Amino acid sequence: MQISSHRHFPKRPAETLSVSERLIEKKHEDYTKACIRYRNLYYFTRLCAGLSAGILPFVVHSSPNIAIGLSIAVVVATVLDSVFNPKDKWKTFSRATDLLAIARLKASGEYDKYANQLSILAATENAHLEQLVNLDEIIEQNRGREPQSRD
């Protein structure tokens, strides 16, 4: 769901919020931003590594400089993925934003009214996050794809 606190919950002036409410709102916004950042990093590393690995066999003989660049791109994407682990962090922050949104709806008394729809949204989000693939799976899929010989 990735429900952002600033888009779906009306903001009250900061001076009317308790310390706890300010903390929860701030963390919800932080988690939403982190979720978006790790989602973008997840797709960037996969696109970069997958496209580079897929193109590499076709240019390795005809354009060695391009092949070197593509190889470097695969290495950089792999290192970024290994160090930052965007898949798991995206899942963590996405689930955190969902849970915070549901908790806020419960606190406001609106949860019961929308419980069925919220459970559908949560199930869909969980199914989507479970289908995310690892970078090594993408690279492995591209191995063995050799260009056809022109002989």
Features:
151 residues; mainly alpha; elongated
Short description:
The protein has 151 residues and is mostly helical. Helices cover 77% and strands 0% of the residues. It has helices spanning 5-8, 19-59, 64-84, 86-108, 111-130, 135-142.
Describe the structure in your own words.
By secondary structure, the chain is mostly helical. The protein has one domain. The chain is built from six helices and no strands.
What's the main sheet like? none
Give the SSE order as H and E letters: HHHHHH
Structural class, from helix and strand content? mainly alpha
| Helical content (DSSP H or I, runs of 4+) | over 70%
| Distance from first to last alpha carbon | 53 Å
Shape: elongated
Q: Determine the mean pLDDT.
A: 87
- The domain tally reads 1
Write the layout of secondary structure elements.
Layout: H1 5-8, H2 19-59, H3 64-84, H4 86-108, H5 111-130, H6 135-142
